[in-house]
Design a protein that fits this description.
270 residues, mainly alpha, Ribonucleotide Reductase, subunit A, 11 helices, 0% strand, globular
Length: 270
């Protein structure tokens, strides 16, 4: 069961004067990706079809992710009564479809799959931590605090599963690192750009480059060095590497440099 409910959020404390409109655009897009967890559950159910214990955990994960989506969607509607969450999500779910009818992980192993999931949870936990610190609006700050805590727990869930399967699959650190880097590169794919488009570009044709640039200019700008440092440490741990090593420190500096470059990239013309 989820660790919190909508009743734990102080909705009456909403202060529109303290909300950055660009951050609201991030919230709208995030509501769509969070609420789309059922497809990932179907995929993981197939990858771990003979592990009912893990499947139960994944269904619990799905319930929490969907709660994130409904909470962010409710907040977005409160901040912008014209935002139609249901319509935006329907457009997103119909336009961004991941294949779920599989017999094995597309990452090559169950360990690889869990590395990829750890990378995702690393990204979301750091994302909501960063937004929570960047916003001055108290209700959004509280929502982000709850969601970030959930995402850190989800990271540990998938890391525990990774460690469970590692003795049998013996996936090398190099292979795990390659999976992690590959999953990080996938953040440039259609999911985030299309979610931004569906949430914020009503009446426009989808232009991936434009939407990706618009999303990145806002999203990457909320991060601070300590968010990147913690995220890099989590990814390194999932790959079986020491975060405090020279490699970990170098990866942190490189990640920070790249993120700053993306945050400073100008929006493309609409």
């Amino acid at each position: 069961m989820p660790h919190w409910t909508h009743d734990d959020i102080p909705w009456d404390g909403f202060d529109p004067a303290r909300l950055d409109p660009d951050i609201l655009k991030l919230v709208k897009a995030a509501a769509l990706t969070e609420f789309n967890a059922a497809r990932y559950t179907a995929y993981l159910d197939n990858v771990f079809k003979d592990d009912p214990g893990f499947q139960r955990l994944v269904h619990g994960w799905q319930a929490e992710e969907e709660q994130h989506g409904t909470s962010l969607g409710r907040y977005a509607r409160m901040a912008d009564p014209g935002f139609d969450f249901e319509s935006a999500f329907r457009k997103f779910a119909e336009g961004y479809v991941i294949p779920v009818d599989v017999d094995a992980s597309i990452r090559g192993s169950r360990v690889g799959e869990m590395v990829a999931r750890c990378v995702v949870e690393t990204g979301t936990s750091s994302f909501y931590s960063a937004i929570g610190e960047a916003t001055e609006e108290p209700v959004l700050k509280e929502i982000c605090r709850h969601i970030a805590a959930d995402e850190f727990r989800h990271y540990k869930l998938f890391l525990d599963c990774l460690r469970k399967y590692l003795p049998a699959e013996q996936v090398s650190r190099l292979t795990r690192l390659r999976v992690a880097v590959g999953r990080l590169r996938e953040t440039e794919d259609d999911e985030l750009a299309f979610a931004w488009h569906c949430a914020n570009e009503a009446g426009q044709e989808y232009d991936r480059a434009r939407a990706s640039a618009a999303y990145g200019a806002v999203a990457f700008g909320v991060y601070r060095f300590h968010h990147v440092e913690r995220a890099t440490s989590m990814v390194m741990k999932a790959a079986g590497l020491k975060p405090q090593s020279w490699l970990g420190r170098g990866a942190t500096r490189l990640a920070w440099y790249m993120l700053q470059g993306k945050a400073q990239r100008p929006h493309l013309a609409a």
